[in-house]
Design brief:
Elements (H helix, E strand, L loop, with lengths): L2 H9 L9 E2 L5 H11 L11 E7 L1 H17 L5 H9 L6 E8 L9 H21 L3 E5 L7 H7 L5 E12 L11 H4 L6
Helix pairs in contact: 2-5, 3-4
The protein binds flavin mononucleotide (FMN).
Length: 192
């Protein structure tokens, strides 16, 4: 890829809704490349304040099933349609990567915000890397990312936070582009 193609690629970065992501997924060399590349993020003080979990195969459906059970336990009135939605949410894309921030509140040199941001960069790198490999991806959170019971289900300790679920797979439909911000409205020179 020359520099023009690289710029075009970056200009076209976009997400694909998770429900439109399907098989085939990444092959083993692509998966290895993506997971290695994803960890190459800005990281103040080289703390590596993140880790990843992968949901693949039957684990995805099982995870969705457990989430649906949790949702019903909390809201017994939940409609069967919503229950089914919870159950299927992680089922579409062949690979879902759970990006987890490992926070050290006692680290006097690196504020928690910077640790979270570094983990966010991992999620973003997964999106960008997946697209570079010709796949689609979407970063989702939803209630599950902020729920302590889901955190326990995933085996997180109390210093860890789910940054997001990055769904990765083959794009199965044409997706219309959303509007993009105009730099003129967002970028201003500071004047003293
Ligand atoms: C931290 C974070 C959490 C997100 N969670 C959700 C979500 O739960 N549901 C959703 O529809 N979009 C969510 N999004 C938005 C999508 O990832 C994506 O940005 C959106 O579909 C627009 O696509 P684009 O990346 O092409 O702009 C989230 C984005 C971020 C950065």
């Amino acid at each position: 890829m020359d520099s023009f193609q690289t710029r075009e690629f970056l200009q076209q970065r976009r997400s694909i809704p998770a429900r439109l992501l399907t098989a085939p997924g990444l092959d083993i060399p692509q998966r290895d490349w993506l997971l290695r590349m994803a960890l190459r993020v800005p990281d103040h003080g080289v703390r590596t304040p993140w880790r990843l979990l992968t949901l693949e195969g039957t684990a995805k459906l099982e995870f969705g099933k457990r989430l649906a059970d949790l949702a019903v336990a909390r809201h017994p009135e939940l409609s069967t349609t919503r229950q089914e939605k919870e159950r299927q949410r992680y089922h579409y894309a062949p690979l879902v990567v759970v990006v987890i921030a490992r926070l050290d509140a006692t680290d006097s040199a690196i504020p928690e915000q910077e640790q979270i941001l570094s983990a966010g960069c991992v999620a973003y790198n997964l999106l960008l890397g997946a697209q570079a490999l010709g796949f689609g991806a979407q970063w989702l959170t939803g209630w599950a990312a902020y729920d302590r019971k889901v955190a326990a289900l995933l085996g997180l300790d109390r210093h860890e936070r789910v940054i997001g679920f990055v769904h990765i797979g083959t794009t199965s439909a044409v997706v219309t582009e959303r509007s993009r911000p105009d730099p003129a409205a967002k970028v201003h020179a500071w004047t003293p």
